[in-house]
Structure formats: C-alpha cells, structure tokens
Amino acid sequence: MSATSTSGRVVPTTTFWEVFGPEGTGEVDKKSKIYEENIDNGGIFSEVQFAGSHPASVELIANDRVYAGAFCCEYGEPYKDKLNIIYEQQVSGDPYWVNSENVPKEHIDAIIDHFTELTPDNVTAKNFFAPEGETADDKNKYEIGHDERYVKVDASYFDFLEKMFKDEM
Questions:
Q1: Percent helix, strand and coil across the chain, each to the nearest 5
Q2: What is the pTM of this model?
Q3: How far apart are CA 82 and CA 97, in angstroms?
Q4: For 137-158, b where at least 16 C-beta lie within 10 A, e where not — what string?
Q5: How far apart are the C-alpha atoms of 75 and 141, rounded to whole Å?
Q6: Burial per residue of 2-33, b for 16 or more beta-carbon CB atoms within 10 angstroms, e otherwise
Q7: Is 5 helix (H, G, I), strand (E, B) or coil?
Q8: I need a labelling partner for 43 at 20 to 30 A (CA). Which of 104, 108, 152, 169 fits?
C-alpha cells in the first residue's frame, strides 16, 4: 500500500511493534525500524516496500515478488490458494468526530439520531454511501443494505485507533 496508509503501514507496524518493540522481544526501539529501515540500518526486515494499493499488494505477494504484505477486504480471494494469512486485524470504519466544545449537545444528538435512524427505506439521497465522484450504478455497491446501519458507540470503541496512531501526529 502506501507509507501513509492505515491498513498498509499503521496496522502492520502496530502489530509488529507489539511483537518486536520494547514490550515484546525488544529487538526494535523505534517504529521506523519496522516500516522504514531495513536490516542494514537497524530494521527487522531485509527490505520494505509499499505497493501503492491493496490489489497491488496482493499481486506482489501472490507472484512471489515480496515475502509478505498487508491488504484489506476481499482482495486476496482470487489468490487464496497462494496466500497464507498469518494475522487478521479488524479495522473499523472511520469514526465521525465532532468538537463538543464548539457544537451544542442538542446538535450532536440530532446528528447522531439522523445517522442511526437511516434505513434503506428512508435514505433520500441517491448514492448516499458512495465515495465522492462514484455512483451506485456499478452493481449498486454503495446502496445501504438491509442489514447495514450506523450505530452509536462509546468513544472507547476507537481506543485501538489511538493506540495505533500514537506517535504518528
């Protein structure tokens, strides 16, 4: 993926940090020794590459161009006979944040109610779930499914993200 990617760098780096960092084997003392530096510079890998995308990462692994890699979702399905999954990490969708010091509580509550009450039957905007510039015309892939909903969660649900991004900002 990319050196700025959550799934391609931050998640794998956090995972390896827990194994090789100070609270693990102690082999590395900086996260950069996992995602940036190679063995010659004190890193733990002989080489570090970023494929640029999830599908490209899968292609590199499946075609023996790299020893290991990270990717998201179902991109590995066509190559499942060539891939050995060594670790899976659930990465939740991006949380919606609001500055509670500047937005009144009644507005926050109204926003939460709006999203948690959306259903396939009451969503009014066509392609509501489509990324900017894309439409649901491609096999309706962005229409809300009957089993999909926004849910309100406690902020602690995203603690793992704060842990992953510690020292990133």
A1: 35, 0, 65
A2: 0.58
A3: 40
A4: eeeeebebeeeeeeeeeeeeee
A5: 16
A6: eeebbbbbbbbbbbbbeebbeeeeeebeebeb
A7: coil
A8: 169
